[in-house]
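Weekly sync notes, structure subgroup
Attendees: PM, AL, DS (notes)

Item 1: joint prediction request from the bench team. They want all two components modeled as one assembly rather than separately. Inputs as received:
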Amino acid sequence: MSARTGQWETRLGLGVRREFNRYWSIKRQTILTPILETYLYISVFGAALGSRVGNLEGFDYIVFILPGLVMMSFALNAFENNASSLFQQRFMRAIDDQLASPLHNLELLGAYALGGLGRGAIIGGTVLLTASFLVDLPIADPLLLVWCFFAIGGFFALFGVLMGVIADTFDQISLYRSFILQPLIFIGGVFYSTSLLPEPFQTASQFNPVFYMINAVRHGFLGTSDVDPYLSLGIVSAGVVVLFGIVYWIFKTGYKLRF
Amino acid sequence: MDALRITDLKKKYRKGPEALKGVDLTVKKGEFFGLLGPNGAGKSTLIHCVTGLAVPTSGEIKVFGKDSQKEYQAARQAVGLSPQEVMSLDWFLNVEETLDYHGGYYGMPRKQRQRRVDELLKSFSLEDKRKASVRALSGGMRRRLVIARALMHKPKMLILDEPTAGVDVELRLELWHYMKRVNKQGTTILLTTHYIEEAEQLASRVALINHGEIVDIGTVAELKKKHKKKTLEDVYLAVVGREELARTAKADAETDPGAGEGKGFG
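Output from the run, pasted for the record:
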């Protein structure tokens, strides 16, 4: 489906490269700032408060929160990249060059989605790699983590594409991030186990989709979670399929992309 | 085979007026075709429908025999679009990348792209701006770049949407010269303009469009003869109307101080 432009190069690959070059050209804002932000969380919650919290489900507090922090930085950046990039391209009408080209709708959608997934992976991977020098973080189920990468990353990357298309102002994108996604991630159990919460908050947590994502990632690293990780990822994967269907329909019909 | 065949094309915007009200139009292969009309007549909408930037409400568009909806990849492959708005360049790219990515989207292999980029940068006097960000370019340079980009994949049909709007007289003449050369080399050109002089100088056939309808079509000589007028400007006045002319001239004066120069009505 993705036509070749050379021996190894595909049009999809070219679209992903453009996206990578875009965020690399402003790396202080797109790469370094989120990494620094995550380290501040690790320092404050892990190093400063962690010693007072002690162990949580048999792990040092810093080790317990690290999987959630990695997931948070990965997911938020995959979302933010795609939402802001696509919105900016629409706003400036720079996307017209791609829309008027023979790029297949799937190639165009894939280029944006994979671009954000890549940025999330760079940031999440850097945090994980450097943190592994500071703490002894186990990897209990590597295959589950690979599934988490594609399911959770795919979900947020596609959600970012969706918001990038339907948002009418930059303000709306920042609203989704700050007032919806970030709170959902925070109350989804990044910094605590929901089993510690009193009712009705414990039950309420189960209506938060991010709760399942954090628990799946935590199970992949630590081998422990509040819910069945496979059930969690099954639900998230189903969400990815639904989201993909919606976004593909948007690209196919040109809703808010074409005049 | 016709380069472009449009049948009963209608376009109604979701929250707007009916911009095209059943347009029928044929552009022959190798032709330099002018689409002349005042601001808001439907010129850009028509071009957007042809290039896939707008979704037609109804009707059929065939580009070199390929349906623009059902065979959109093949239809778009044949077209190069130079948009009216030069701010629509990707601000994260430099001049060379702008051309290179465009070529890639049209399936050109890397080495072929490199050669073509060199050719175009030379032709459009942008060689020393190769690594310059598009943000750093002047308006005239951006105009050159969007036209070069449209030509990057050697399209069979070049669509120029108001290519000389807002450019100085010198660049306008330079672009006219280039467009004529490209057409002589066999590329079909569809030019939209609201400068009568431009259509008269360049186009072998002209369609007059107003309020989303083609109101007349023919060679400049045919139109003059049909309406018994001495100039295309008089034909335009008779067909489109003086009020529209005054409205366009006023809009030009507000947005484009250089547009009043020369014989054009702007």
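Discussion: Chain A has a mean pLDDT of 89.
Action: AL to compare against the crosslinking data before next sync.
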